[in-house]
Write a structure and sequence with these properties.
The chain folds into two domains: about 45 residues, Orthogonal Bundle (Arc Repressor Mutant, subunit A), CATH 1.10.10; about 130 residues, Tetracycline Repressor, domain 2 (Orthogonal Bundle), CATH 1.10.357. Helices cover about 65% and strands about 0% of the residues. It has eleven helices and no strands. Helix 1 crosses helix 4 and helix 5 runs parallel beside helix 8. The N terminus is likely disordered.
Length: about 210
Amino acid sequence: MSIAVVRKPLRADAARNVDKIILAARQCFREHGPEVPLQTIAATAGVGPATLFRNFADKEELVLAALNRQLRETVDPVMVEALAGMDAAEGLLRVMNAIMAAASADANLLGAVAGRRELLTGITGSLMESIGVLLVRGQGQGTLRADISMTDMFRLLAMLIGVVDTMEPGSDAWRRPVALIEDAIRTERSGRPLPAHVPLPASQLHNAHFN
């Protein structure tokens, strides 16, 4: 699951401020985009800039804390259920869906670390470990291809997260590429049709020659 940002224990009032700042950051990034000023986030949280900077050294640290919170709230519970389930392949796909839903919901947070996606490794390390458990278990059950490595899974997930850059924030256009990845990693392809095709956003069509 996700790795919490390392912090010293906080007093109750300080912990409340951190929670308010993270919630405000997620709201502001969704409403204003990845370039939202920290002053706007502080004002939305109802704290002064000094309080924000006392808890987060810079925008990068705040973004990672907000992404970590999103993973902990939305992906970790799905992972717990997947690890407890009998069908590892189904569990792995549910986790991938949860990751992509979270990435789509907070696309502007991801945009704030665009070009520095290696920063995400620190908050997804144990998540990848759990994905490794599901992969090995699914291979043992014969439902996932035996020749897939964890390096493959890391790259496939990185590719999927990159899909967020090609769609509108909050869109479920990621469902189709996830279905294609599912067909690639399972030992038997499903007979179900692919999810609906979603065209590229209008802002990107001038760079593409397809729809």
